[in-house]
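DM from R.C. (forwarded with permission)

"hey, sorry to bug you on a friday — could you get me a structure for this? deadline for the figure draft is monday and I only need the backbone to look sensible"
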Amino acid sequence: MSETLPQPEPVKPSRSFEGIQTELYAFKDAPDAQKERDLRIERARLINEAKEVGVLVNIKNHALDVQTKNPSILTSAPLINSINTIRLEEEARGLSGWKDEFEGLINTYKEGVLRNMTLAYLRKNNASASDISDLERDIELLNWGTPPALVDSMPIEPALADKAFGFGAKELAKEMAEAQGIMSPEKYLEDALDTEDQLKTAFMIVPGQEPRFWPILTEAEKDEWRVRANLIIAAYKKNNAEGTDKLYMGERKEMAVYIGKEAHQKIFKKPGVMATVGAYTTVIGDERFLSWKDTSDLYDEDGSPTDINYKKVFCENLQDRRVAMSVQNDYGDEIFNKLRVSEAELHKGCADSFYPHRDKKNGTPINEEAFRETRKSVRHWLLTKGRDLLLSENELADRDEFFNSKFKSKEELFKEMSLRAREAEQIAWNYVYINDLIETFDSREYRPEGTGRLFPSSYWQLFQWVPMHPQERFEAKIKRGADEPKEHWSALGDWGVYNITQKRFIDADGKFNMPENLKILPDSLIRSPLLPQRHEKGKGENKSLFSIYNSIGNDLIEGDISTVSNRELFNRIDWKDFPDSPFVPYVYDEMRWADVVTNVFKKGGERSSKVSGGDLAEAVYNLGLTRDQREKLLLIYLTGVDPKQTDLKSQLGGTVYSGARQGFLTVHPNYFYGVGR
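My reply, with the result:
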């Protein structure tokens, strides 16, 4: 048995908050940097404990409410000063986890609000340097953070946030982590990025239990991470689902409920995200990238990739002389040379397409390894050709300063840009992944005739694909023949295999070909929520999110990427008409009803499929199935199919089926409602 090493005990404050404050203030006129730092760290630990308990919730809400309604200090200051902190502290004493060491915290928070408001007012009105300096010193010593300072609609200067602790929030968090023998916030953030990338675990942000890297984020970054966490959970659940029932309704609530209008706005404002969503959408679903039939479509006669080969899109950026020169100018010679080597390596490992080739000899087929290389290639594309897409609007306005003056070295610049490219790609991929784009287009409805289907993988979910294309799945299984293992299609499996062995589904060329009149369901029962569903009316393809993202991808791939801005991309969505919850119908309706139909298609009647007649009636209506499709499903559901007939006929005979059909329609008269709509 291995010996368990002792873990470091967290250092707990031995003094009260007020005692620490008093000792700190003694240094106002006689500074001692090291002692001040130690005391601030000790105070910060105590305050974090108090925050976890909820001690500051009420005073914070009171102060914010007053400031919001009264942004002028002349009206807000007296109201804030009148807040009864004695009463609030008495209420806080009833909280679970209260400690007497917290005494004075609430009142000091109020004083901190007033001090910061006053400082903002003095700055705005050009007060004397001595007055400002003296108040800054008070804030440096007595504040543990920066309470809001709304004064005539003028927020407190960002630079003051660092002075509130006497040093930066990131630095403080790091100091505290080291003092307690735990990982630094930066390391926790790196772990979160790995989780987002690999989807090895879910990632949740629970109010009051925020992750350890929370203190080093801005408020905007916190809002962004709340959305990213829901994307991670949704992608993780999809990636690890062990059945179709785990991909809809409450199992996928993060996608349906939490990835709404506001969430879209938050992640699409992040530089590079919307552009990368567009690029992924185009290489996955644009007809040019789907139109190849063999490797001759992917390569020109001279062996160079065609424009439908995404090796050319993502891994040949530095072969463009103009792009190469500008990249070299921005990053410097050393980093430029590293990027050239990296591009060559990525070119070797990246697949030619997301979809399988007919002839794999001259191209790299998609697989897990190639998929990872493709994602790295997208980040490379952002770092090189698309690097301006990683800049904020202000940074882009002074681009020269960003690339040449903002960072201490080109290495620091490149580190920052690499992080931005990674984050943009990870967010974009998880968004595209949860919207089932690959599962949608990996279908004979879109693939050229004769091309193969993808195998299950981390970027393609079989249990998602089957209810989207149950007819194609069924035909793929039965054409293996009677001697091959086949999926359990109890309702139709024997019928299909028998017809194949009798050569009834074999055309003149000796190929499997089920006649159209014998097909039960359409090739695509449902599609990605980014596309209008086939059964929906009044939602044109040109108004879909897919069409918007695809137009972005085409513009970036084919056009002059330097002319495209993040703001322009963001405004391509009509946010006024954007639904509050765009994915709710897909998760709670389309996926649910597709699963109902697929279960009947595979298993037959109510007992075997565990589908009620009412659910079947509602499913065929909501999915807009034709009369013929509904008739075939009803036959399968009520009596099963005679396995030794070419046509779909009742296993129990026509008379029995007619009686059963009439009885069913008596109970469910709406079964054929809406046909032909």
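R.C.: lifesaver. Residues 231 and 295 are 35 Å apart (CA to CA).
me: no worries. The first helix runs from residue 17 to 25.
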